[in-house]
Each structure stands twice: as structure tokens, then as C-alpha cells.
What we know:
The protein is mostly helical. It is 51% helix and 3% strand. The chain is built from ten helices and three strands; from the N terminus they run H-E-H-H-E-E-H-H-H-H-H-H-H. The chain has helices at residues 3-25, 37-44, 48-60, 79-96, 100-103, 111-127, 130-145, 151-175, 186-195, 198-226, and strands at 34-35, 64-67, 71-74. A three-stranded antiparallel sheet has the order 1-3-2. A hairpin with a 3-residue loop joins strand 2 and strand 3.
Amino acid sequence: xxxxxxxxxxxxxxxxxxxxxxxxxxxxxxxxxxxxxxxxxxxxxxxxxxxxxxxxxxxxxxxxxxxxxxxxxxxxxxxxxxxxxxxxxxxxxxxxxxxxxxxxxxxxxxxxxxxxxxxxxxxxxxxxxxxxxxxxxxxxxxxxxxxxxxxxxxxxxxxxxxxxxxxxxxxxxxxxxxxxxxxxxxxxxxxxxxxxxxxxxxxxxxxxxxxxxxxxxxxxxxxxxxxxxxxxxxxxxxxxxxxxxxxxxxxxxxxxxxxxxxxxxxxxxxxxxxxxxxxxxxxxxxxxxxxxxxxxxxxxxxxxxxxxxxxxxxxxxxx
Length: 319
């Protein structure tokens, strides 16, 4: 295999992983949904190798469960899992700010972009726009993570945040969003970092985690009242399943991903555009949405998801 072929395969592998992650975060691949390498490869119009690698990458990130004989399944995180995620993030961040000079380097030039993410996240939260909120919130925390000097810690925190959204997204769509569920302290946290106010940063982070744990308490109480079908947990390894359920359910069709359409796709193109990108699409791409859409794995934020026509293959992305 030539070096260029290896680069192409690795690029395609990452694009497929990003597209599937966005499908999960948008709720189009809900918890418990089963699929196989063959299904994804056929729908993307690519070979099985990059698809298999992408799915194993997502499994390593905790978003998918895999079984040698049944394929892959979107992880079903429980309330106990979510509580463990929040507590893990709280412990790590607490350690970071115990001696911030050694572990965190706030760069003023990076704050302008983070302020924009914060403002958009708060606006989306207050407006009840979940798709926009997820995109901006993930970008907000990812960019904040760039101030963490240890890249392994930054990566760990980002993965936990993505997993938390996988847990939350279908519950928020079911129950709705309000100030008792969502945290609005993004802007206050940024300003405290800009001032170098260590105590206020700590207070904002405590508020964030208290909010998450309070929501977990309410969900547990609601499920306790629900009786049969409520989620039950044993530890936080992700092995919990609904009462009476099994680890894998019968496979169902995978929805056509918003980022890919047609056969022999050379590049898995994000279906959603960033509102910061003022470029108009080429005339050959008029079947793709001209309006912006959110994509948390892209290089910038976005707004609401839209699905391209499944009848046309996207042209190669020009960035």
C-alpha cells in the first residue's frame, strides 16, 4: 500500500467517525440502535476497512458498544453513568485548579473565540434550540481545553462531555429544556478566567457540576416512580441496561447519515455549515443546504441540522 493510500484511508476513517458521532449527537442514531459494518459501508459507498476502523474508534471513545457476532450498538448510558461522568469531570477540574499555574495556561488571544461560543451557547439554551446548543457547547469546552497543559487530560474531559451529551440529548428532546436542566454560566466562567479570578472560576465550575447532579437526582426520582422499564445500574462501566432488556436488540435500518449520500464517496463531507463561514456553496452543490447547520466535530460551530437530498452525491469538499 502506498503512503498516499494510507493517508486517504485514515482521512476517510476520521470523516466517517465524525459523521457518525454527529448522527448520534443529533439523535438520528438513538441509544440502543444497532448496525453493522456492512450497513454503514453500503450507505456511505465506501469499503468496509475505514468503516470498521471508524466504528472501533467510536467504541474506544465509549460511544458505541461492540459485539463480535452482532455488530455495533449506540451506547445506552444510564443516570448512574451520567452521574459518574459529572463526578469524574469535577474531580479532574478540581485538581487542575489546585495549582493552576502548573497545569493551566490561559491565553488572552484565545478568549475572543471562546466568548463567542459562550454567548451562542447561552442564547441557544435560553431559546430552547438543542441542536445549536450542543454544537456551541462542545466547541466551548473543547476550546477551553486548549488551555490545559496536559493534552491527555484535555482529551479525557472532551470525551466525557461528548458522552454526557449522548446521554442527555434524547431525554432533553423528550422532556424539553428549561433553566432547571440547562446550565447558563458559560459567559461568567470565561470572564472569571480572563480576570484570573481563581475563586470565581472554582465557584462557576461547582455551579456547573451541582446543576448536572441535581438533574441526575430528578431523573432518578422520575424513573423510580416509573417502576417497570426504569433504568437500573451496577457500577459505572456502561453495562447497565433497562430492566428486563438485553444488551443487543434486533438490528434495524440505519438512517442515511446527513454527511454522506451516494456511492463511491471520496470524502465524507459534513452536511452542516458553520455560521462563521460566510462562503456560499458552489453552483454544483445547490442541493446541499445553504443555511448553516451545527457539526460539533467540524472546525467551527454551527446551527440547526438539515439533511441533504439523498439522490445526489456531494462533491469533494473545498476548504
